[in-house]
From TrEMBL:
It holds the Pfam family CBS. This is Hypoxic response protein Hrp1. The keyword Endoplasmic reticulum does not apply. Keywords: CBS domain. Residues 8-66, 73-131 form the CBS domain. The lineage of its organism: Bacteria, Bacillati, Actinomycetota, Actinomycetes, Kitasatosporales.
Length: 139
């Protein structure tokens, strides 16, 4: 049985909620990713910021990315999955909430990886991947 830990991109990094949007953009560039999990002061997942969030929520609003905290761009409670969850649970979570990136959390509630569409494409059959894409992108 395939688990979330088997398909995730390990070693995901997060950014503290009080860090600047500019720093988030630099980290995304350096890591080659389009999203970063955001942590609170207790190093717990409290949000996710995407490159689109930076453009729409900061740049387009004429905010200073060097002074805007990344936590200001996060909304709601982020979705996540335990590392030992079955891949069917991963797909259900992503499909039901129409999300493209899913943080993977260990037993101690610490971030251990991220699952993206690219990870799914590498590990799923064409049929399962097609079904996932249809459900996530359907209006």
């Amino acid at each position: 049985m395939t688990k979330a830990a088997d398909i995730m991109h390990p070693g995901a990094q997060w950014i503290p909620e009080n860090e600047s949007v500019l720093r988030a953009a630099q980290m995304m560039r350096d890591l080659g990713v389009g999203a970063l999990p955001v942590s609170d002061s207790n190093e717990r997942l409290c949000g996710i910021v995407t490159d689109r969030d930076i453009v729409v929520g900061c740049i387009a609003e004429n905010c200073d990315p060097s002074r805007t905290p990344v936590g200001q761009l996060t909304e709601g409670t982020p979705r996540w999955i335990p590392a030992d969850a079955d891949v069917t649970d991963v797909l259900r979570e992503m499909e039901e909430h129409k999300i493209r990136r899913l943080p993977v959390i260990d037993q101690n509630k610490r971030l251990v990886g991220m699952i993206s569409e690219a990870d799914l494409a590498h590990h799923l059959s064409d049929d399962l991947l097609g079904e996932f894409l249809e459900k996530v992108y359907a209006q």
